[in-house]
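Anyone up for a design puzzle?
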């Protein structure tokens, strides 16, 4: 059994174990956007695990402890029977079967108990990866918040480690696997005392072609964990303890540290979850508010676009009417008259600007000229009259010639 956190190299470990001779299920999850080399895990079993989590109000991204005591006895028996049926269908008579799904960390005790009841001996390989790399991968792939991803990593590794202490087990780091997979395999083989059907030499070329540092899209050191405020405390301490178990799987000090962290984490989980839920709820409310504002803005833009379209249509109609009018016979016949009207307007304006009087007087003269300009123009012989030289009889009574 490969028991490890999501994005921790479980797929790479599973593929190497498969090349060594461990049997894969008939229906495996293939490559996808999150893992272009394949997941190497039983698809039907993954779907079944998601079903179990959903049935009891959880899912793969939930970092709370999965309380197996919530499952009624009759339901536990039914679930165990389904697990056995799935394993029989997927692995048939395989003597060395490979089971891998990160979700198993959440209810590993129940799964291991079910295998034991079927007299199936379980050995466990626990892949360990730098939590900064895991959180970065989950943030990129699933849009998960770093805090949620870090707590999810912590829950998986704590539960997986605690559950497997009485089983044959081996720890392997993802970085070590990429750097020297042969040494990692030798360590696993020694810890589990397994006689693999295929030797390291037999699979050398296949593993070398499969593994690549290119698979490691996020690389961080142990120092990076200490320097990251989000990782200090539980996360950093747990990672240190796990690295100790890689080199010494029986380290009592490491297991005591992990027990302490797990106890503190379990006690703090309710308040952390409550606070996290409030933060998420406020975030969702803000997103909903912004979405409403965006919808209202889009509606206004849509309305303005409709108005603009109407105005554009009206302008087009007006331009068509103007064009039709200017090309009509009546427009051509009245062209001289329009020219005369424009000329009179220009002459009146020139006369108005030429007046040497104050503004009020100019206004009165302007009004007078507009009304009597044709007569004045005729009487003056066609020249623009100077209002100061006009005879008194040509001025209205309210205008003084000396003004």
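Challenge accepted. My sequence:
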């Amino acid at each position: 059994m490969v028991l490890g956190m999501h994005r921790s190299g479980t797929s790479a470990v599973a593929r190497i174990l498969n090349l060594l001779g461990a049997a894969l299920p008939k229906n495996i999850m293939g490559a996808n956007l999150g893992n272009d080399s394949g997941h190497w895990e039983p698809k039907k079993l993954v779907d079944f695990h998601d079903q179990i989590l959903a049935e009891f109000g959880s899912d793969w991204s939930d970092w709370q402890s999965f309380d197996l005591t919530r499952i009624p006895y009759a339901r536990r028996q039914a679930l165990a029977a389904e697990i056995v049926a799935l394993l029989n269908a997927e692995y048939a008579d395989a003597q060395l079967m490979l089971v891998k799904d990160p979700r198993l960390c959440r209810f590993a005790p129940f799964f291991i108990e079910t295998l034991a009841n079927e007299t199936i001996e379980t050995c466990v390989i626990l892949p360990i990866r730098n939590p900064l790399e895991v959180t970065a991968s989950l943030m990129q792939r699933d849009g998960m918040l770093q805090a949620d991803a870090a707590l999810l990593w912590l829950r998986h590794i704590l539960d997986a480690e605690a559950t497997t202490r009485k089983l044959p087990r081996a720890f392997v780091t993802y970085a070590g696997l990429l750097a020297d997979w042969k040494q990692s395999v030798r360590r696993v083989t020694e810890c589990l005392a397994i006689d693999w059907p295929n030797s390291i030499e037999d699979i050398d070329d296949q593993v070398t072609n499969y593994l690549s540092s290119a698979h490691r899209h996020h690389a961080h050191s142990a120092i990076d964990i200490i320097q990251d405020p989000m990782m200090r405390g539980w996360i950093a301490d747990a990672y240190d303890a796990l690295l100790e178990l890689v080199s010494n799987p029986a380290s009592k000090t490491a297991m005591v540290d992990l027990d302490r962290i797990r106890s503190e984490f379990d006690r703090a989980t309710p308040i952390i979850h409550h606070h996290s839920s409030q933060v998420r709820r406020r975030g969702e409310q803000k997103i909903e508010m912004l979405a409403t504002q965006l919808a209202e803005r889009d509606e206004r833009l849509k309305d303005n676009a409709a108005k603009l379209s109407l105005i554009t249509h009206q302008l087009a109609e007006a331009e068509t009417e103007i064009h039709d009018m200017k090309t009509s016979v009546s427009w051509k016949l009245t062209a001289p008259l329009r020219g005369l009207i424009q000329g009179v307007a220009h002459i009146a304006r020139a006369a108005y600007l030429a007046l040497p009087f104050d503004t009020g007087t100019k206004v009165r003269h302007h009004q007078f000229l507009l009304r009597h300009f044709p007569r004045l123009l005729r009487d003056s012989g066609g020249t623009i009259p100077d209002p100061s030289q006009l005879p008194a009889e040509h001025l209205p009574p309210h205008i003084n010639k000396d003004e």
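A detail worth pointing out: The mean pLDDT is 84.
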